[in-house]
# Entry
Amino acid sequence: MPETRRFMRATLAAILVVVGSFAAAAIAITVAATPSQAATCNGFVGLTFDDGPNPSNTTNLLNTLRANGVRATLFNIGQNAQQNPSLVQAEKAANMWINNHSWTHPHMTTLTQAQMTSEISQTQQVLQQQIGSAPKLFRPPFGETNATLKAVEAQFGLTEIIWDIDSQDWNGASTAQIVAAAGRLTAGQIILMHDFPPNTIAAIPQIVAGLNSRNLCAGMISPTTGRAVAPDGATPPPPTPTPTRTTPNPTPTPTIPNPPPTTTSPPPAGAACRVTSVISAWNTGLTNNMTIANTGTGTFSNWTLTFTLATGQTITSGWNATYSPPSGQVTATNAGYNATIAPGASTSIGYQANHTGNTSAPTTVSLNGTRCATA
# Structure
């Protein structure tokens, strides 16, 4: 495709030269890059839209995504797909990634294993017939999951996808609020949006412009890692406070392993830090996107962040750090590529956790032994 574009641009340029020699002011032709082409991609994020296809809005969604030069992941409800096959074909023609969001959008964790299997299998079958291949991703409605559901997903070779950022578009969020939510995305992360809200459609051009201004691009969600990667599956090096580090990329931690041996540097002279938590919670789970900011005058190296989880919270996966133990007083250890936080710089980490009702942010937060302010 890049070779084709270069050929077309070269041909157009040649035409302009010829036309200009006969009538210099007669014709002006502009070949403009789409917003996604204009951005230098230092990272990718997952734009996801749930609950389609819908006759009232899916066409508008697809037109807006294409007009802004981006692809998205669509989590379709099976019965909606069955009733609107032409819209699924339109999604496929628009080069979107089409995946499974259950058959009727129930609270999956209230179902028997047989009912869970039916919800997933019916949707898999219909979508495979419509798009020619079986979906690889499954998003449980409401983000509710448990061990039984995960086992059913595994039977179909599905990777479970929740989200890092909840746009709240389902809850009446304004266009500005949806754009602001997308503004919190960092490389590898995923935002929850929906097919039906008009405010979401209106937000897309501003979301894309905001991503481009931060050198982020819309990408696909990897079935292997569950994180956003380049459309061909290759992940660029993540942005870090130290640009010389370019190799590893952030991936979620499917289990909570013991952190690798590391030597935590003592806090530097003039050490100070601030940790901000952005929590998106649902019935029994939550995600917390944490920003660690160095507000002092010294550099934090080989950092570890310790914090206390609220009672009833248990970390099930994480990104950009390793977490141990999964509950109580937790130590998050840098992932190597983000081991240094210079003065005035920050780095983002996060985790997904189960909860029993208390969705509070962590307390007693310290970076390399230095107590951090929290927000």
